[in-house]
Write a structure and sequence with these properties.
By secondary structure, the chain is α/β, with parallel strands linked by helices. It contains 15 helices and 21 strands. The protein binds NADP nicotinamide-adenine-dinucleotide phosphate.
Length: 508
């Protein structure tokens, strides 16, 4: 793959550099092209496009939001095989978008960004990839996703284990699990998908549960040939279907953000699902959560509970004390010898970027900027980081609807910003610190009243218990707030401007 960026011997100049070829990165690229901006490059660390849908290839991986909604609004796919698309078809959909919108020549795969540094001297982002290539860009889009850095648990002895060990987001497909004794650590969204998918193949499967999730039946089914034909011949029918799905999911925000007490209804459904799926009363008791439904992500599965009832599957509810060379030991001293350990332990959602990767004005590392917790204006602009757009950034995640909807709203805002800058002849913009701070104060006040603040521990909250990941209301509100870019909330910078983030407000 090549690009059409201007090349000098060792540095490529581009208008926009996008980090990540997932849903956010590809969407930005499509919208840049639509705006007549062809001078951009997408760098991605993986071997294929897809972002999280490339990385997560574990058995059973599928989306838990209906695919007719979990796809771009402008690129409907009438051929989804099921209500909930499988990983491979979502990845294929993204490949289709790359081909259809002519993005191939802009994409560099296996090209992991080592560092992106904003240069005060010329107001440009200087980006170095691990393969030695270098770029200079006016805009930087961090489309790395909120769930792209696997979390490895801090369990004593983990490195001592002599068998096979891998994370669900880096599945080792070369390792044959058939007939093996396997430990699966974690019972989150990933684990409840891969546990049933591997249970029949392995000899023994020990599922280590620290906190049981609330699980509801998954309303999945194959999309019929007739429906596909209708969607293809009369695209309006698919639009209507998407709209119905959107509002159905959107209504769930009522429970999470307005009337948390209604979560009892969900708990009732969850308990009924357990009763119907698990005959053994002791096992039933072990999987009933003791926190309000919705506090952690509500999961959908019809095959996870039945998998736990298999003769070769053992739910372990004692805490893990240590891992030895050949097994896992719990706090009661019991040890299960295993050949392989699969970590379904989630992602560093509150630390989405590694230290040293994005350096803003005056050498400020974004991880230092976020030391007290992630924050951004509308989840997109961060003070101290001019012309940086973060996608799927702080407080833009959802517990109730499709994140693709949020991404489309974010990218609309980004494009409006770029257009406004062009119209006003502005070279670089930075969000005012006071505007950003006030925006986040309001968000946190609202988040304190939601179901996510009801006392459970989840990846939504950082180590200080602050919710830095979720949007606190209806997505339609976020949509309306991102319709129009307001330049008055930003400070215009010229090359060589050395204002500190604190000065930005005064400068405005
Ligand atoms: P997760 O929901 O964060 O689950 C991690 C699991 O690992 C939890 O059960 C957690 O227990 C457990 N765990 C973590 N550290 C542990 C330790 N030291 N000892 C024992 N257990 C430990 O991660 P995930 O399942 O990968 O899902 C993350 C998010 O990705 C989801 O919420 C969802 O947004 C997204 N996702 C979506 C899909 C989909 O669309 N189908 C699929 C997968 C993931 P605790 O609960 O006690 O912390």
């Amino acid at each position: 793959m090549t690009n059409n960026a201007a090349m000098t011997p060792d540095i490529s100049e581009v208008h926009t550099l996008i980090i990540g070829a997932g849903f956010g990165g590809l969407l930005t690229a499509i919208k840049l092209k639509e705006a007549g901006i062809d001078d951009f490059v997408i760098l991605d660390k993986d071997e294929g496009v897809g972002g999280t849908w490339w990385a997560n290839s574990y058995p059973g991986c599928a989306c838990d939001v209906q695919s007719h909604l979990y796809s771009y609004s402008f690129e409907p796919n009438p051929d989804w095989s099921h209500m909930f698309g499988r990983q491979s078809e979502i990845r294929d959909y993204m490949r289709h978008c790359v081909a259809k919108y002519g993005l191939e020549q802009h994409i560099r795969l296996r090209c992991e960004v080592r560092r992106a540094r904003y240069r005060d001297s010329d107001g440009r982002w200087q980006v170095e990839a691990k393969d030695g290539t270098r770029y200079r860009s006016r805009f930087l889009v961090a489309a790395t996703g909120g769930l792209s850095r696997p979390a490895h648990p801090d369990i004593p002895g983990l490195e001592e284990f002599k068998g096979e060990i891998f994370h669900s987001a880096a599945w080792n497909h070369d390792y044959d699990l058939k007939g093996k004794r396997v430990a699966a650590i974690g019972t989150g969204a990933s684990a409840i998908q891969f546990v049933p998918a591997i249970a029949a193949d392995v000899d023994q499967l020990f599922v280590y549960q620290r906190t049981p999730p609330w699980i509801l039946p998954r309303p999945d089914r194959a999309i019929t040939g007739f429906e596909k034909k209708m969607f293809r011949r009369f695209p309006i029918t698919q639009k209507i279907y998407r709209t119905i799905l959107y509002w159905r999911l959107e209504s769930r925000a009522l429970v999470f953000t307005v009337f948390p007490g209604l979560s009892r209804m969900i708990e009732w459904l969850g308990r009924r699902h357990i009763r119907k799926s698990i005959p053994d009363p002791h096992l039933r008791m072990q999987v009933v959560p003791d926190y309000p439904a919705g506090c952690k992500r509500i999961l959908l599965s019809d095959d996870y509970y039945p998998a736990l009832t298999r003769d070769n599957v053992y739910l372990v509810t004692r805490r893990i004390r240590e891992i030895t060379a050949d097994g896992v030991v719990t706090t009661d001293g019991a040890k299960h010898e295993v050949d392989a350990i699969i970590l379904g332990t989630g992602f560093q959602a509150t630390k989405p970027l590694p230290e040293g990767m994005i350096i803003g004005r005056q050498g400020l590392d974004i991880t230092q900027r976020w030391q007290e917790g992630l924050e951004a204006y509308k989840g997109i602009s961060v003070s101290g980081f001019p012309n940086l757009f973060v996608l799927a950034g702080p407080n833009t995640g959802l517990g109730h609807n499709s994140v693709i909807f949020m991404l489309e709203a974010e990218v609309h805002y980004v494009m409006d910003c770029i257009k406004t800058m062009q119209e006003n002849g502005v070279d670089a913009l930075e969000i005012r610190r006071d505007v950003e701070a006030e925006y986040n104060r309001r968000l946190q006040r609202r988040l304190a009243r939601t179901i996510w603040a009801s006392g459970c521990r989840s990846w939504y909250l950082d180590e200080n218990g602050k919710n830095t990941t979720l949007w606190p209301g209806f997505t339609v509100e976020y949509w309306s707030r991102t319709r129009k870019f307001d330049i008055r909330n930003y400070v215009s910078l010229t090359a060589g401007n050395q204002a500190t983030p604190g000065d930005a407000a005064e400068a405005a």
